[in-house]
Model the fold of this input.
Amino acid sequence: MDYQEFKMQMVEELRAMTESDAEIQVRKIPKDNGIVRDGLTILRPGQNVSPTIYLEKYYARAVRGEKPQEIAADILKEHGQFEVKRAVSVDVFKDFSKVRGRLFFRVVNYDLNEERLKGMPHRRVLDLAVVYYFELADCERGQAVVHVRSCDAEGWGVGEEELWETAASNLKEKKPFELCAMNCLIRQLEEEAGEEHDDIPAVPGMYVVTVPGRVYGAACLALPEAFEPVAERVGGDLVVIPSSIHEAIALPVPEGVQKEKIELMIRDINENNLTPDEVLSNRFYYYRAESRELQMA
Done:
């Protein structure tokens, strides 16, 4: 079965599993770094927003020979976890006072998203761009989010500086940055995946900086104060690695640090451990404890 046949089959299987008047479609979704992915949406009667379910991982299961009905059932299960079960008022999009308390920012690679950024209020930080989003509504697992476009900000009569100040304040208050020792994070991820290993070695001085839930946690790179606690613990400057759009890794500056070796390691991680739209940068940064600033390496 080729990919196009798979997409059509999933739509048919899901139609058989859902209400007859549910609207099911697959469309192209622009993502970070110029990536376009196939996203499936299911709108039931009375709903006007739907989570987007990306199909590539499910197609891999079909290639391995799994039954179409089982794959479609899991797509429906994922949809249910993120589904907003009520209609969302369009007034939310028109009134900044209704958005203000749910406004946050995240960071993306500037050069890889330059064209997309033309339609979004943003600011440049290092080799990254800060972009804004608001959490639309609660669902079973997290939030439905909408990215702020330039036309949205213009309609609100709000400039980029006010977006920045509002989003930064919300981030600090509602999504305070978390530090986690690297070995502790690995253990936590394995437990979530149902795996356990007793021999995970400690990595002295290496910390992951992110936000609760580990979604868009690399926003810390736009707020250097997030790295002050790590610098205090290790007693000096840091190497900061943008490990994905969801987190950064901070560690003491190694003796005899070699920029080329670190960047080679980052490129290897980006190519082999992340999806293309999760990649943040092939570069790394220094956090200077004395000036409390991040700077390009």
Q: What stands out?
A: The chain has a mean pLDDT of 88. The chain has three domains: 3-82, 90-174, 178-296.
